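Reader question, answered in our methods column.
A reader sent in the components of a multi-part assembly and asked whether the whole thing could be modeled at once rather than chain by chain. We filled in our standard form and ran it. Here is what they sent:
COMPLEX SIZE: two components
ENTRIES:
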Amino acid sequence: MARFREYASALLIVLAASLLCLVLRPHLATIDVAMALLLAVVLVASRYRRGPALVASALSIAVFDFVFVPPYYTFDVHDTAYFLTFIVMLAVALIMSGLTARIREDADASREREQRTAALYALDRKLADTATEEELLAIATRHIGRAVEGMALILPANRDEPERELPRWPASALFESPSVRVAAAWAFEHGEAAGWGTPRCAEAEALAVPLRAASGILGVVVIDPGNPDRELPETDRETVLALVDLTAASLERALLAEQSERARKEVEGEKLRTALLSSLSHDLRTPLGSIEGAASSLLQEDGVLPDDVRRELVEAILEESRRMTSLVTNLLDMIRVETGALVVNKEWQPLEESLGVALLRLDQRLSAHPVSTRLPSDLPLVPIDGLLIEQVFINLLENAARYTPPGTPISIVAWPEGGSVVVEVADRGPGIPAGREEEIFGRFYRSPAGQTDGGAGSGLGLTICRGIIAAHGGRIWGDSRPGGGAAFRFTLPLDGPPMQPLPADPAGILGAA
Amino acid sequence: MRRFLRASLRANGFQVVEAATAREGLAQAAGRNPEVILLDLGLPDGDGRDVAQELRRTTRAPIIVLSARGQEHEKVTVLDLGADDYLTKPFGMEELLARIRVALRHARLPVGGSSGEGYQAEQLRVDLSARVVQRDGSEIHLTPTEYKLLATLIRHAGRVITHRQLLQEVWGANFVEQTHYLRVYMAQLRHKLEKDPTRPRLLLTEPGIGYRLRETEP
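And here is the structure of the entire assembly that came back:
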């Protein structure tokens, strides 16, 4: 329809020009008419395609010859010089329309390139944001499918058995067609597109494009055009290939990142093992030595050792054993935290329970310090693993007891803030050495400021706390307090599985009036 | 472990029968009719739960399970299957003796009977027949659910009760998963009855497992 309109417009323009010239005939020389008609032709050629341009040209030549060239109203020409004019008009028409056609094509091509670049850019940006391989593939399939107005499916290569070649075919109707499977397999093996719209396996109902990256073929993208009878425009194919390449590059990047992470974990694990071995070696042998020494002394002939000495030796054995238990507990927790084997069973609990248990367990160790607690009675329940948070309290309180002079107060305070509960354990000891606020959470860091209980810490307490709090989605940090001492704070986010509301509990009056 | 247990228990006046494996243990339990059974969950030839279940079928003697730290889930299961109390290794002799004492006391009570009329420890005094709760001499008002919870704890005084058992006895079988109900009410009891709810002396929390009310004073 548009074509018809173009031709009609071409005719109209030329006719309009002719009529104008006819009307102004007495005032115009022949050359003016020629120019006017030429202008009409140029107008048509600049707006419409070659066809209408040629028609306009032919028509204007005919009109010019017939009406304006003597002998008038015949197609004869007296002056052969006019042939030149006719040729020029034709040539102009051809050149002009050729030019404009090229301009239009350039403009179209430019627009398509722009669209393709925009599509690539959009996909690239989305892919850069993805965190998992699944997300990556999902986004890529969406964009690729959109580019051809069809649906795309990505089949990653079988990574467990790289020699096994073919990815697993999904159980969908598309893959029941053997030609689709052949096209996909071919694309995967040879690293080139096959299927619908390509010269290879062209009868397949889908297009298969391999995901080619520097490290090899990572899989196959299978595109279902919906209607395999339609054509795949060249530009769309270019776009698809570009999108697939982009996807392949992103996928490769994701896989490499994963590999690199695994390697890093191994190295970390190795470092941890080395550190643990050296720690075990020293920190366990020392108390064991004391125990053995004390026990063997006790086995000496009766009467050699007075009773109070015997009692002292026995108490030493007990104390050293407890110390070893604590160390082993810490080491085991450490391993669990570092290797990611920490299982967090969150339940909505009142914080005071975990604190209460910790305070009870450390009753003796804390006996030299006045302990004050301030937990508002309307503090919300927190979703925590009670045992783990108990361990956090124990580690923090043990540190407080160990590194502060006897008699100095230790305080525990908690309050809600934002969407979390913040807990603070503070003391009035020497505080944290300036600039070491991060370092103290490192493995096996022991305070240079000597210990007031004569015992050795494992250096793991704070590291474990950090691991546990991180596993709860919170943060832990330490600062020196104004006025002396250290304050350790940690947050426990209040998000977790929803709680059912409590059943109604009428407040009955009990007991005799 | 058995060496020190044997020596200590004998020194405290108990007769001790030992078994190194589950099979041996079950046989001894059936044959010698012990008054208390100490069951280690780390037996080489049996799952603690199966042994506990089997024991429960043949004897009413209280079972105290011994287990390592970090095995809370297992301990809870065994307690729900019929064990009466537990100890976490390493433990001291005093703790063990205390648990055995409590277990024996409960075992010697008539079936279904509780500690009788009341409970008293430190600042708390409860008269179960009159349903009166007093703290430091003055009466404390408890809601029906709080009272029911306290009464349940008193019935088991000195022994651990799992979350599940408490929920079942106080709220009913449909509520055994609603641990936060229990925690909220326990918190309320602590606030009403304890001098310092963050350092409870009577309403003790057994982390990962349940609660324990301190033994009544003689």
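What stands out: Residues 507-513 of chain A have pLDDT under 50 and may be disordered. The longest strand of chain A covers residues 216-224.
Send us your own complexes using the same form.
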